[in-house]
Specification:
This protein is mainly alpha-helical and 257 residues long. It is built from ten helices and no strands. The longest helix has 32 residues. It is a multi-pass membrane protein.
Amino acid sequence: MTAAVFFGCILIAFGPALALYVFTIATDALKIIFLIVGAFFWLVSLLLSSFVWFIAVQIWNDNALTQKKLLIFGVVVSVLLQEVFRFTYYRLLKKADKGLLAISQEETMPISIGQLSYVSGLGFGIMSGVFSLVNILSDSLGPGTVGIHGDSPQYFLASAFMTSAMVLLHIFWGVVFFDACEKKKFWALVLVFISHLLVSGLTFLNPHYERSLVPSYTILLLMAVWAFFTAGGSFRNLKLCLTCLDQDFLLSSHQPR
C-alpha cells in the first residue's frame, strides 16, 4: 500500500511535467541546458531564502504567535527571491544572445525568448516540486499511518496535486514574466508576483485541502489561458489544433519566421 501511495504521488505530481519534457525538450540539448540552469537558479533562491529564515529565527523570540509570523515572513521572502532570480535569469539570457548567435550557424537565435521562458519555467517548476514533495514522499513509506489520529487521510494525495499545480504554474509564470520583461509590462510582473504569493499562501489553509486546491487550480487555469495568449495562441489555431481541420495551416504556423 505504501509503495502504491509513493509511486502514485510521484505520477500525479510530476506526470504532466515529465510528459512536457519528453515531448518538447528531451531531444534538444540546448533546451536541456537551459532547463538545468533554470533549476539551478531556483535552487539558489531557496538557499538564500533558507539563509534569511535562519537569521530571522535567531532574532525573533520563540512563541506560537511569532512562529506563525515567521511562516508568513518566510513565504513572502521565498516568493520574492524566486521572482528576483527569475528576472536575473531573464537578464542573463538576454546578455547571452551574442554568445548563442556565435555558436549558431544560423543568422537568428537558435532558441526564441518564448521557448526560453517555457524551458526556464519548467526548470523552476521541477526543482520547486522536488523540494516540496521529497520529505512528504519519504513519510509515505512509513512507519505510521496518516489519519490514525484524526488527521486527513488525503494528505499525500492533496500534496501531490498541489505540487503538480505549482510545477505547471511556474511554466505559465515564466512565459508571462519573460514576455512582460520584453514588453516592459510592469503591471504583469506585479500580477505574477501576487498570484505566486497567493498560491503559496493558500497552503496555510491546510489541512482543509479542498479550500486550498480549488482556488489554486482556478488560478492555474487562469494563468494557463493568460500564458497561451501571451505565447501567441488564439481561438482559431486552438480549434484547428484540436480538430485537425486544416493541417496546412498548422504546418505553416510552425515554420520559422
